[in-house]
Amino acid sequence: CPETTPRVSAGAMSNLVYTDPNCTGSERWSIWREAISESIVFGPDAAEPTGSASFAAQAADVEAARLGLGTDEVEVCQLGVAALLLSHVARAWRGGRFFAALQIFAILHDDFLANIHPGFYQHSAWPLHDTAVQAWKERFLFQVRRFRELAGRRLDQGQEGFSEKAVPDAVERENLGSLGSHVFQQLAQRELRSKWANSTRPNAHRELIPRWEASPVVSLVPSMGQLHPNVRIYVYGPDDVPIIEALTRAPAFCHYRQWGMDVGFHDFFRSSPLRTFDPDKADYFFVPSYACCHQVAGIYEFDELDAKHEAVVQHLPYFGRSGGADHIFSFHYVDLFPSWRKHIPHSIFLTPETEVGFERSLDEFTEDQSRFPPFNPLKDLSIPPYLNPRDVLGFHRNAKPIGEREFLAAFAGKLWTDVTEAADVRGRVAALAGTPGLAIHAYASIAQMFGPQGLQEVMGNARFCLVPRGRAAWSVRFFETLWARCVPVVLSDHYQPPFDTLFDLTEFVIKWPVSRIDDSLVEFLSKIPNDVIERYVEAARRVRCWYLYPPPEVSWLGSWQSRRELEQLEDEVCPGLSSSRNAFMAVAEVLARRVRPTKAGRTTFYIPDPNRGHRPTVTDEALMPV
């Protein structure tokens, strides 16, 4: 079996995963499955030099080699290949080869687990346990942070600090080299951006480097200079509250969809220099949950999500310090925790939705959404959804120059007749179909939707892109317009786009009243000259990279395909995306600006505690530390 990255076809899916997941039709794979299924868990324990789990994993490797099993047999036994890859991860780690293990894990993560509902492997006979996958991801992210720290200590030596002469051990050189080269790459991109920012050439694209943007080194390497943004975040895990493991199931499956930022923030805070392992130094506490993915995938129903979130909150050891006001939850929709108003009313929500708690008509909610709103701009943050890098590049490459665009305005989207407010707003837009200069494709059935190429072409051929509310106030179309280089016209009265404290939205967004979606809108847009449109588009270009997330680190650091997509993004549109210039860092900057020096909440007390050397201590009413 190879020690290097196995070669499997990206995103390969076999029909046998549905009809014969246990591969009973293959004698060789059946023999291996029966030999390992009762005794093996290919988790981090299997990667230790000794121990029963390690010895069993090594025996499984020997048996797989005897049977001639290979990772190229996806069409024969997809779940068996996935289990074999997981065993290879453990073997590479046992050999001290961090990057080899990460490369194999990236293949497993992107080409298998991201494409298969977790129920298939959880209920199969293969030892593909979600807890093992979670544990491996935690270990990889921790080690990425650790190796970045070690690489950072060599940066002052330049590329020579990672040469064979400087690092004689080949394995250590492999482990440090990729992270070191990435930092140098990001520094080169920052230098290029600085030249663009200071360019005096006529018609040059002026680059924006805000005063608050951190340097690439500070963004990536712990302990390198002063922390920036100046904020410390403690990340809860199963060791703090065991039930968190249930709320973070299926991390690969949940990452590559619109709600993938729930996983993304969990990964970012774990590997970022902003992370602290000392709760006394924390400005915020992050509570991970992939609730939207779990609800859509049928992993948990609403009542199960409610019970699990309630149980987590009740056991958060540092929640009482401020009554939860310094605790952060990432929720695609906050009503995925139905009783949040009772348990976490003062906590911070990272969410794309700024009007309602879930995708329902207003008259279906038992709670008045305006009386106790699910989004409070004084504490919560509006954030972008996750966008696939290939889609971003597609919009960018299909964007025509403004002067060459055929349409005045365009919209393509579903009518969503089951949500009253969505049906009203989108129905008004649909009524504009047939108006000269407009490209309106409003459809009732998903079967009528444009494919990615068709959507990218129509948006890239319009000067304005209409963004009516979707099933809730927000719509992914808003973020797609930034890459299609059309001016977004928001038609959603209660939607608050992200990062209005970092950028002036009025410079690149038009927000138009829903009550006036009629011919007056068309007339208004038609009278805006192209030089004004160009000004709006250019303003959007200067800030749009902070509305985009980089691919998962466990993917692009280990997968050449994912790394290539990231490099294309950084080369063509967003230099610095994988360090200081992305939506994660924008959120971190907003959080840093909101840090309260006083950690106590309004329901707690504080005294110079004689039992702690008279240190200032936050207590409960019984004067016990919280």
Short description:
The chain is of the alpha/beta class and 626 residues long.
Helical percent range? 25-40%
**How much is the radius of gyration in Å?**
26 Å
Determine the strand fraction and express it as a percent band.
5-15%
Count of β-strands: 12
Structural class, by secondary structure, is alpha/beta
Strand order of the largest sheet: 1-2-3-4-5
Total of DSSP H or I helical runs spanning 4+ residues: 23
Shape descriptor reads: globular
What low-confidence regions span 5 or more consecutive residues with pLDDT below 50? 1-12
What is the typical, i.e. mean, pLDDT? 92
- Biggest sheet, in brief? 5 strands, parallel
- Taking the alpha carbons of the first and last residues, their distance comes to 53 Å
Write the layout of secondary structure elements.
Layout lengths: L15 H4 L7 H10 L15 H16 L10 H17 L3 H16 L4 H5 L7 H23 L17 H28 L18 H5 L12 E3 L8 H4 L13 H11 L12 E4 L3 H6 L5 H13 L12 E4 L9 H4 L4 E4 L29 E2 L6 H9 L9 E8 L5 H11 L7 E6 L8 H8 L2 E7 L8 H8 L2 E5 L18 E2 L7 H8 L3 H14 L9 H4 L3 H13 L10 H11 L11 E5 L5 E5 L7
Parallel strand pairs: 1-2, 2-3, 3-4, 4-5, 6-7, 6-8, 8-9, 9-10
Antiparallel strand pairs: 11-12
Question: How does this structure look, described?
Answer:
This protein is of the alpha/beta class and 626 residues long. Helix content is 40%, strand content 9%. It contains 23 helices and twelve strands. The chain has helices spanning 16-19, 27-36, 52-67, 78-94, 98-113, 118-122, 130-152, 170-197, 216-220, 244-247, 261-271, 291-296, 302-314, 340-343, 389-397, 420-430, 452-459, 477-484, 519-526, 530-543, 553-556, 560-572, 583-593, and strands at 233-235, 284-287, 327-330, 348-351, 381-382, 407-414, 438-443, 462-468, 487-491, 510-511, 605-609, 615-619. The strands form three sheets. Strands 1-2-3-4-5 form a five-stranded parallel β-sheet. Strands 7-6-8-9-10 form a five-stranded parallel β-sheet, with helices on both faces. A two-stranded antiparallel sheet has the order 11-12. α14 (340-343) links the parallel β3 (327-330) and β4 (348-351). α7 (130-152) packs across α8 (170-197). Residues 1-12 have low confidence and may be disordered.
